[in-house]
Amino acid sequence: MNDFITIISLALTSTYLIYSCMILKLWWPEVVRTYQLSGFNTPEAHLARGIFAGFMASLLDNFFWGVTWLLVLFDHPYGLPLMLSGSLGNVFFRQIGGLYSAHEHLTAANSLSDRMLDIKLGAKLGWAAGLVVLLTLATFSVG
User: Fold this and answer.
1) How far is CA 14 from CA 7, 8, 21, 38, 134, in A?
2) pLDDT of the chain, 143 residues: tens digit per residue
């Protein structure tokens, strides 16, 4: 049963990767334009960069896990090492890319909304929560 679910996941991953490439191709000219024009800090520029970064990060994350699960499915010797190093991929693809994308989306939304969000306070709370998790897990996992 688990192999069947893995096969479904891999099929959906290929579909998702194609859609992501289409979205990246669609938004790339706008992202380039935000760096070429003086409108670098417009809400539209932040939104374009947020969308692009979010889909790029997700594409890389899905590609990494798609390859990993494919290797695991076929009992390839690289499957298990990739599976065990998955947290490293998550840090670079999912978390860092997602954080940048979220920051850009929030900045764009803040510029267009009547309800102002305190992005700096949210960032401080988020980093503080991350630090608490880091210290807690480091304290209990060292041994």
Assistant:
1) 11, 10, 11, 37, 34
2) 788 999 999 999 999 999 999 999 999 999 998 888 766 788 889 999 999 999 999 999 999 999 999 999 999 999 999 999 989 989 988 999 999 999 999 888 888 776 667 777 888 898 899 999 999 998 887 65
The closest of 37, 34, 71, 38 to 50, measured between CA atoms, is 34
Judge whether 102 lies within some domain: yes
pTM equals: 0.83
Q: How many domains does the chain have?
A: 1
- Going from the C-alpha of 93 to that of each of 2, 48, 98, the distances in angstroms are 25, 18, 8
82 domain-assigned: yes
Residue 136 falls within a domain, yes or no? no
How far is the C-alpha of 56 from the C-alpha of 132, rounded, in Å?
Answer: 29
Domain ranges, residue 100: 2-115
* Angle between helical axes of 43-73 and 97-112 (0-180°, round to 10): 150
Would you say residue 139 lies in a domain?
Answer: no
Distance CA 136, CA 25 (A): 42
